[in-house]
Amino acid sequence: MNLDNLYQEVILDHYKNPENKKLSVEKDVQVHHLNPSCGDEVTLNLTLESGRISNISWEGNGCSISMASTSIMSTLLLGKSPDDAKKILDSFMELMQSKGSAKGDELLLEDAVAFAGVSKYPARIKCALLGWMAYKDASLQVEAKSK
Ligand code: ZN
After folding, report:
1. How far does residue 145's CA lie from ligand 1's centre (Å)?
2. Summary count for the chain: helices (H), strands (E)
């Protein structure tokens, strides 16, 4: 099996069996993000407790890339400190801006390296980034609230 097939399987698997896809009752903030060029949308709830992401849950509709990427993002960031989450987010953003030249830091990004190939297709980068941008927005709002 070549790497592209393996990656496609990771994406399809998260699309069919998404993680954390059920909005929590309690949350610090809720954000709603759209990707009009593809019709993807994500609502994301974020809760921080004792300096950790204690809850990150979401609901959404859209293409397999946007839904799988949001699912993987939620599994990667749950339980992390906001600083560690930012490192993962920055690393994923860098991968998405690589135009297909980067493979991604597997230690940091784990299953999210499956989206490396997506960075070759400008129209799909927004799909892959939708959930991550929703997290970024939510984390900035939580930070602003706590000041
Ligand atoms: Zn999409």
Report:
1. 31
2. 5, 3
